Amino acid sequence: MSKERGISPDIFYSAIEDALLTVSRKYFPPEQEENVRVEIDRDRGRIEVYITKTVVRDVVDPAFEISWKEALKLNSRVREGDEIKIFLPGETLGRVAAQTAKHIIMHKVMRAEQQQIYDKYQPLQGTLASGEVRRVEKGNIIVAMDVGEAIIPPKELSPKDAFSRGDIIKFFIKRVFSEGKGPLILGTRYQNDFIEALVRREVPEVAEGIVQIHSVSREPGIKTKIAVFSNDKTVDPVGAIVGMNGNRVLSITKELRGERIDVIAWSESPERFIASALTPADVLKVVILDEENRKAEVTVTDDSLSAAIGKRGVNIRLASKLTHWNIQLTNRMETRSDLVQKKL
Q1: pLDDT tens digits for range 324-337
Q2: CA distance linking residue 286 with residue 325, whole number of Å
Q3: What pLDDT is recorded for position 336?
Q4: Contact of 1 with 9, CB cutoff 8 Å
């Protein structure tokens, strides 16, 4: 069991000792409960439960003293003043006590396992992890880890995610619990943190801090927009994310089951940032209408109005989330009176 569970044998021995102490104490007088001891011979597999008493000529305290004559029946070499062990016969405990001891042992082993999982993965909370899908239960993905299991509930999955037993899955460690029923590691493939972690793993420039992610907006399973900037003027932030021949962004897209990704250069200029965020639309002009309430009017070409809006408004919605501006769209053929507005 120690090898199977990856737990030190000392924990098992300690659990057995504690369990036997608990179930054995009731077989001794109440005043002797704290005097009960358990010893395990690890080499021979022998277990001894006993109390100790001092050998005396005349007994004053029966709970802790035994007469020399009675002690001779247990050990013919005993002398007055010696400490003698009085053992509890193994058959005394019986089936009920054995079952109670078993429950105590398994509970202590379970807590040791949980503590081991927490100690290993709590420092990794907020990072990317991977594992093999062990099973799927009611939509929950159960992932086998080096120690213990992780769970990814349906609400933490993208609509495009579909996994079967044996699949290797990447996920973001959202939280690690110290105890509880079931897996203690909660994962997500839904939140923006998962996207950022994927980019950080795939793009060395991001991992090294040369290129930084300013913001991410996502509609899982449909599209993601990532705004980035570079701390080094010689490094193109968008090019770093996309990679040669698009290999880096394609790798991320593949992990997201084909979800489209737009990589955008962040700019301190709101007009420039908003224009870039509306990619693939052809933006002609950006006018800040209300800086305090972050409202902007964007004029696009006739041909790219539908691209700016996107299917079911996805593109403009993601652009607004990415920039934190309320974007109002118009094409160059329209007047202000018949402005077409699309809001987040």
Answers
A1: 999 999 886 554 44
A2: 12
A3: 46
A4: no
pLDDT, one tens digit per residue, over 104-143 is 888 888 888 899 899 999 999 999 999 999 999 999 999 9
Q: How far is CA 338 from the centre of its chain?
A: 51
pLDDT at 90: 63
What is the side-by-side strand order in the sheet with 211-219? 211-219, 223-230, 260-265
Check residue 332 and give its pLDDT: 67
Exposure class string for 196-217: b at 16+ Cβ within 10 A, else e = bbbbbbbbebbeeebbebbbbb
Would you say how long the chain is, in residues? 344
Token pair, residue 140, equals 């929950």
Q: How many CB atoms are closer than 10 A to CB 275?
A: 23
The CA-CA-CA angle for residues 159, 160, 165, to 5°, reads 105
Give the Cα-Cα-Cα angle 276, 280, 282 (nearest 5 degrees). Answer: 75
Residue type for position 291: E
Q: What angle do CA 33, 38, 40 make, to 5 degrees?
A: 175
Mean pLDDT (the chain, rounded): 89
Structure tokens at 43: 């080499």
Taking Cα atoms as reference points, which of 184, 186, 183, 188 lies closest to residue 198?
188
Q: Give kind and range of the element (H or E) at residue 213.
A: strand 211-219
Angle (deg, nearest 10), helices 270-277 and 314-323 = 150
In angstroms, the CA 36 to CA 27 distance is 10
